[in-house]
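Recall that a protein's primary structure is simply its ordered list of amino acids. Everything else, from secondary elements to tertiary packing, is in principle encoded there. The following example makes that idea concrete.
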Amino acid sequence: MTSPLRFASILPAICVAALTFFTLTGCASQDSVRLLYNPSAPAALPTPTAPTVAVVQFEDMRGREEIGVKRNGAAFRAMSPVADWVSRSLADEIRRTGPQVSYAESLQQAQAGRPDFLVTGRVDEVWIKETGPASCTATVRIFVSMANPRGMVYQQNLMSTQEKTGLPGSGMVEGVLTDALREVLNVAADQIAKAAAR
């Protein structure tokens, strides 16, 4: 059995070790950004005659792994693939507009389902910049196109820059990035729904 005196002597060492662990993991978690997304409205229940739309995973054209920079020069890094995040989030946004939506990781996989429309695109920029101790900006820039068997029916370059202030930490960073993505995807989803309904 450990004596009270010996326990008291090792307690400061335990506290220092715990403090160091939580400090290091706290900083690491703020550098690692979760790519989150909630559609702007619930998915609509498609009718049996609703057009079928297949969203193909976008190409990531950013040319770098990091998704931003902190004031101290450290990089923000995504915890999951950026192109998959953008593409799946677009599929979720299109679902709220009424079409029957599927998601495919390749063009061949999408074509196998014989959808009425194919949505493809690319991610040109996803970037977060910490502008102050409690503020940051995020920019999302994408290209979206939609085609049916007869040809192209919609294509557009979209960009959004959002700024957020609040409590420092990963929550603020994730929130501003989600806001920037939502703004471009709302436009894309609405335009895709209009083109599919023609």
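Residues 11-29 have pLDDT under 50 and may be disordered. Residues 10 and 169 are 32 Å apart (CA to CA).
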